[in-house]
Amino acid sequence: MDRNEPSHTFSLWILVFVFFVSSPAEAQAVVMASPRLISSAPGDDVVLRCHLEPPVDIQALTVEWSKPDLQPDPWDPLRRVQYVHVHRNGGEVTDMKLRSYAGRTELLTEQLRHGNVSLKILNVTLADAARYRCFIPKLKSAVREATVQLVVDPYLIKPSTTETPLDPKNLQTQEPQDQTNAAAGGQSSLRIWILLVASSSVLVTLGGVCLWRHYKKERKTTLEEPGAPQGREPLVQGSCLRTS
């Protein structure tokens, strides 16, 4: 029996173990889109969410976003794929994207290390409503792509926010309402003053009546006390006695 046989067997097991342990995690990762349907209004900024599950660092890989249902340009038959955004070698390839998306797409590059390949589209228009495809061509996985449907609805009501944009038009439209509120506030203040003056007048009048009654009662009591000086007899009585 060869003495080197155990060492060869041990080395073989080490190679097998290293192969399975060091196999790339991207072989198990799949591309997923969630949600697969996004609704927005014209002018909104939307994010087409797409990621790898489980998360894998794909900073060195190429990421392609395209519109698979868009017909090829007849003036450019060689371009079969209508790209919206292409990320390659750490940056965007601008000469491959559709002109209508120039300056309006952003890839969350800082999230690529976590397997996040979501695409942000700025100021969406009705023409942006379509199905979008996220594709990672060099990903060593059975599922390298996912699709997201974007719906742009002009009648979509945006949720209200606590912040109000400082728009001169908005300020002008709010002036009549502010004036109405100011006038209503002035009328309310005037009513309050009138009520205060009326209440004060009533209180003063009641106080005067009470004082007068008290004074009259005191005077009557004084006149009715014994020994109080009486008034002079009328002159008519004196003259009547003298004539008699």
Descriptive tags:
244 residues, alpha+beta, Immunoglobulin-like, 6-stranded mixed β-sheet, 3-stranded antiparallel β-sheet, 3 helices, disordered C terminus, transmembrane, signaling receptor binding, glycoprotein, transmembrane helix
CATH superfamily placement of one domain: Immunoglobulins
Category from helices, strands and their pairing = alpha+beta
Percent range for helical residues?
A: 25-40%
Shape: rod-shaped
Give the arrangement of secondary structure elements.
Blueprint (H helix, E strand, L loop, with lengths): L4 H17 L8 E4 L3 E4 L5 E3 L1 E4 L9 E4 L16 E6 L2 E2 L12 E3 L11 E3 L8 E6 L9 E8 L15 H56 L11 H9 L1
Parallel strand pairs: 2-11
Antiparallel strand pairs: 1-4, 3-9, 5-6, 5-10, 6-7, 8-9, 10-11
Q: Could you walk me through the main structural features you see in this protein, from its secondary elements to its overall organization?
A:
The chain is of the alpha+beta class and 244 residues long. The protein has a domain at 24-152: Immunoglobulins (Immunoglobulin-like). 34% of the residues lie in helices and 19% in strands. Strands 2-11-10-5-6-7 form a 6-stranded mixed β-sheet, with no helix packed on it. A 3-stranded antiparallel β-sheet has the order 3-9-8, with no helix packed on it. It has a two-stranded antiparallel sheet with strand order 1-4. 15% of the residues are buried.
